[in-house]
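pinging the channel bc i need a second pair of eyes. not urgent but kinda urgent?? the chain im working w is below, pasted from the shared doc
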Amino acid sequence: MTLTFDEKGLIPVVVQHAQTKEVLTVAYMNETSYNKTLETGETWFYSRSRQELWHKGATSGHTQKVVAIRSDCDDDALVVEVLPNGPACHTGAETCFHHVIQEKPSTIGSLDILEKLQKIIETRAIEMPEGAYTTYLFNEGIDKICKKVGEEATESVIAAKNRDAEELKWEVADLLYHVLVLLREQNMSLYDVLGVLEQRHDKH
């Protein structure tokens, strides 16, 4: 593949979290930084303001491990998927895109809620705030958590058999929540499970 760099020898790069798919930052590469990214497996950019190569995380330690690179149809822009070792933004935020101009309505479901919910459950497991249902589940232990997963799975099946779409949505939501609690109790991540699905997909 031959990439198309602009008249200044640069190509725009969208850096995306490989697991959450959140856009972390937009930067530029020249041919040298692109090649160094390929060679080292970490992101290297070209700073237009300083006019020099820039190894992300060289001073902060917040490096980005590259796991995938894609170009667009004209080969003049890149998406680089990374596993970040810390915040992507110099402000300390996880992503540079943290100024909300228009918020997505909660009525529009998206996969990012699973990441948010997983983080909330992780926080509950550490802080164990009094009165929180998640705290109650962790205090009750594995038997209670497994029982709830079984109950919600059964109720989801019943709702499906009854062709009750509205009820099914709520029951599956409960099931997903309790599965995430179960995974956290087992010191596993949702991404461990998604990795299995990825491997299975590659075999078919």
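so The first strand starts at residue 11 and ends at 17. and The chain has two domains: 11-84, 112-202. — does that match what u expected or am i reading it wrong
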